[in-house]
Amino acid sequence: MVIYLPGNSSAPALDELTPREIVEQLDKHVISQDDAKRAVAIALRNRIRRQRLDPEMAEEVLPKNILMMGPTGVGKTEVARRLARLSNSPFVKIEATKFTEVGYVGRDVDSMIRDLIEMAIEMIREQKVEMVAERAERNAEDRLLEILMPSQKSHGIDDPDDSTARTREKLRKQLRAGKLDDRMVEIETKGRGNPIEIITNQGVEEMDINIKEMLPNIFGGQTQRRKMTVLDALEVLAQEEEQKLIDHEQITRQAVERTEQAGIVFLDEMDKIAGREGGRGPEVSREGVQRDLLPIVEGTTVNTRHGMIRTDHILFIAAGAFHVTKPSDMIPELQGRFPIRVELKPLTKDDFVRILTEPKNALTKQYTALLDTEGVELAFTDDAVEEIAQTAMLVNEQTENIGARRLHTVMEKVLDKISFEAPDMKEKSVRIDSAYVRDQLSTIVKDQDLSRYIL
User: CA-CA distances (angstroms) from residue 65 to 144, 289, 336?
Assistant: First the structure.
């Protein structure tokens, strides 16, 4: 399972984005696949529209789940991931093949909702911590200064001239200037307790019975004295102060609401569980997994350590290659829960060229930035980009077609020598042209057997 944390974005506020503007935001990161972008843009805009309805009507408006079909490496995951970042929604990606039918050893389908609420809590906690960070740092400074120079009042002595306070302010300036970073201090912190792992056939999620409250000393109720540098002590104390300043119960309440109203679950490899009873082999019943997924997608209540989570308004985006199977191979009830079907097209050479150059996180930009840290100025010519794209297409045709992921492999091979020698290079300006690309790849591309292993 992969969990993504939405980053800060300079994009307009979500409420202000029209479907066309949502697509424009996605265009910055995902090349081609206009149909998929339109589908997720409409789904996201419908969420905004639903928030403007009166509560009674809003309760009846259910999300239109999306089923993406297309070969690997064409952008299915990237579209969903960028959508989640754009909407600042809790998002989890999980492979449907990780689930097993109830009664078998493995992950149960409820676990993805538990993962989603944990994701929401982490998101909101980070936001709250950012809000109190300045105040927490100030409190941590005060605690540290009390250790470095205890106030007269702490010893029951009056200080009418306030001389200690003035001295402490001078000390604060030195602290902020980093002049005290290496001094050793002894601070009192909350103990982390001894790690305890409980393994049951129900999974860790089902074992939350307030053990922390029953055994507080084991779970960090005790304090301990630790020696460390002032720099490290300031960080530890700031973290403690942050935890004091944020309301954990409020975080949980907000996380539950955000999960229920804005959560997005990306179910990958849905084609691997598509099928009816009658299949052979050791694998657990695929239809059984589908039937377990059905109530979650349809709308049910899942018990988590943070309370009951309703899944009625969580958006589910399913994806799969559907080479061997097809959506109609899923059980009819589950088919009906994914009313929006989008077919993603295989990528062309021109798409590869655009992927290498246009997105904000384009591969050529990534490698240029990485080598710039070594003082190496990397420049790709247009014909070099064309050659890399052509090679990736050729290898995809001759071996397994893994879409845009092939570009990563080809780029690594092209820049292998430069990446290795970069710290020691005397000539810090490097121009990558088509001749250089062919020279680095010629031996591998000519030998098809070799290219199968290396590219």
Answer: 53, 18, 10
Q: Using CA atoms in the order 297, 307, 115, 311, what is the torsion angle rounded to 10 degrees?
A: 10
- Listed in order, strand segments (DSSP E) in 300-453 are 301-304, 307-310, 315-320, 340-343, 377-380, 429-432
Q: From CA 223, how far away is CA 240, in angstroms rounded? A: 12
Which amino acid does the sequence have at 218?
I
Count of Cβ atoms closer than 10 Å to residue 127 Cβ: 13
Q: What are the CA-CA distances from residue 438 to residues 134, 195, 396, 410, 432 (Å)?
A: 54, 54, 17, 11, 10
Q: What is the pLDDT of residues 14-57, one digit of tens each?
A: 667 889 999 999 998 888 899 999 998 998 888 888 888 998 99
Residues of the chain with pLDDT under 50: 1-11, 195, 197-209, 213, 219, 281-283
Residue appearing with tokens 């996380």: 255
Q: Name the 3-class secondary structure at 360.
A: coil
> What pTM was computed for the model?
0.80
Residue 350 tokens, joined = 């021109």
CA within 13 Å, CB half, 455: 30
Q: Which two tokens stand for residue 81?
A: 């991931």
CB 79 within 8 A of CB 40: yes
State the sign of the Cα–Cα–Cα–Cα dihedral 311, 198, 209, 189.
negative
* Residue 312 structure tokens: 């009625």
What Cα–Cα distance (Å) separates residue 143 from each residue in 42, 139, 168, 234? 51, 6, 11, 9
The predicted-structure confidence for 249-304, as pLDDT tens digits, reads as follows 999 999 999 999 989 999 998 988 887 555 554 445 788 888 889 999 999 999 99
Residues 6+ apart with CB under 8 A from 389: 349, 350, 352, 353, 356, 407
Contact by Cβ (8 Å): 400, 381: no
Residue 84 half-sphere exposure toward CB, CA atoms < 13 A: 29
Other CB atoms closer than 10 Å to residue 312's CB: what's the count?
14
Q: How far apart are CA 305 and CA 111, in angstroms?
A: 11
* Burial status of residue 25 (CB atoms within 10 A of its CB: 0-12, 13-18, 19 or more): buried
267, two tokens: 């179910």
Q: What is the DSSP string of 86-125?
A: HHT--EEEEEGGGB--TTSSSB-TTHHHHHHHHHHHHHHH
Beta carbons of 455 and 413 less than 8 angstroms apart = yes
Q: List the structure tokens of 323.
A: 């080479």
The angle that helices 76-87 and 34-51 make with each other, rounded to 10 degrees, is 30
